[in-house]
Amino acid sequence: MSTTPHAPGPGALPDAKAAMGWMHTARFLTTAAQLHQLPAITVPEIAFVGRSNAGKSTCINTLAQQRQLAFASKKPGRTQHINLFALGKQGATDAVLADLPGYGYAAVSRSDKQRWQQVMANYLVSRQGLTGIVLLCDPRLGLTELDEALLEVVRPRVEQGLKFLVLLTKADKLTRSEQAKALSITRLNAGGGEVRMFSALKKQGVDEVAQLLWQWAHPVIDGES
Ligand SMILES: Nc1nc2c(ncn2[C@@H]2O[C@H](COP(=O)(O)OP(=O)(O)O)[C@@H](O)[C@H]2O)c(=O)[nH]1
Ligand SMILES: [Mg+2]
User: What is the 12 CA–ligand 1 centroid distance (Å)?
Assistant: First the structure.
């Protein structure tokens, strides 16, 4: 039997090693402070969103198996840019990850907050090629008002087939039973999206998320064999 990691055809679940290999190809593509500065992308784009400090940068770095890809900010709220990362072999980009600015950071001025909520909402509603959203949430806080507002914004697109995953981060801070409870509560509120636990520290859920994102980026097109 071959031990070579095998990326299967569209729609099928790749093995964990292949999915992680794909994730590891992540490299910085570009950054933009405003929506219209983002390049048009012809491959599926997957957006990472969440409150600042939810563990977004750490999650992206963990998936990519790179320490500094997404800057795990020591100053939450300061990364007010949309950062794009390309996935796939060099010269054969087959997906893009978008790291959106975290929201809910208290020390950001009200006008900055409002500006960013608008940029975020516009992005989520109108970005062409947006294929899926990963909403990161610290399960000790649960889905907050701002998360709920975001859910409302994306609900119509999710109903039209946009993929949606709520990732409960820092699972290592919870006991098994707290994890189970957080999962079931969040599932009730996730508007039909998937909910998973994740720990960058314990590498919990990492392979599964990589496999899921691979699947999102390589959908089965009707009529294709
Ligand atoms: N225990 C634990 N801490 C984490 C985990 N992921 C992130 N953190 C910590 O949470 C804080 C915020 O993480 P960061 O990735 O910068 O959050 P972001 O603002 O959403 O990008 C940092 O101190 C991280 O070290 C995790 O899986 N387990
Ligand atoms: Mg960050």
Answer: 31
